Amino acid sequence: xxxxxxxAVAALLSIGSASAQEKLILVTVSPAGGDNxxxxxxxxxxxxxxxxxxxxIDVRDGTALANFGNVLDRVGNDxxxxxxxxxxxxxxxxxxxxxxxxxxVVDDVTVASVALWRLYKSGLLDAEYAxxxxxxxxxxxxxxxxxxKAPKAPDDLHGLxxxxxxxxxxxxxxxxxxxxxxxxxxxxxxxxxxxxxxAVLTPWSAFAPYKLHExxxxxxxxxxGASTSMHFMMxxxxxxxPAAAKKALADNGQEAESRRFGAYLANQGAEQRAIGVKxxxxxxxxxxxxxxxxxxxxxxxxxxxxWTKDHPGTDKVMDAYAKIYAEVKASR
Length: 332
What we know:
By secondary structure, the chain is an alpha/beta fold. It is built from twelve helices and eleven strands.
């Protein structure tokens, strides 16, 4: 009887422990078996292991539960609990954050990711994160042009339809004669394949995951900003977690994980560029210094000026971020 009682108590404790474990679904928005899938699987296991039995990070590949276009709503509705979001695809809700993604603002995504976390911690972005809790940030890579076929010149966009992400990118394309079309990353391949667009403005890190190597052959490395992204929860959901769960997420998030994720994306971009170099009939070009200077001048005159005019407070964000970015870069 004594042994039975002990076993019953142990069983009850086990049930209580299991029921206390919170399942958090993380949607990778990436194909199963790819680099992103493996990266998130490892992250999920690490957080789960360090949560002292309070968390079960359930990593789901693909876009069945959420995609870049609806992830904010899906996390808000508790369909998934941890989301990966590109700020530029969430219609105008994050102009302060997006200021750091303007063309020519950053040239190193690892430095940029750390600097964005520090900018967030400074409080200058608080108005955009009242309901959302960023776990960590990461830039998806420096945006460049990938063309289906060679244009007349690397910076001649006249008559060309180009996929862009957000108003600043679209404005930049318009300035140089192109027609900008907005679309999520998962639609780029089909749009290029069917001739709906002539080029995409996206980083090298998207090259193999979205099979752009099959539908592009000319690449102009004009550094037109880097798209901001974040992994996040709803603040209300996060605040309700036990202390051990919050610690596990913090230990695998914040500035340190922003640095790691930025470095991961930078390395992924370098690997994807190497694939582009090896592709037969592919060509990768850069602009001469004088023509690049012309791009920077026109972007500053039009894109920067209009952005800061349309979004009060972004001029202060731009100045603060430039200072933080320089500090992070100097300390590397």
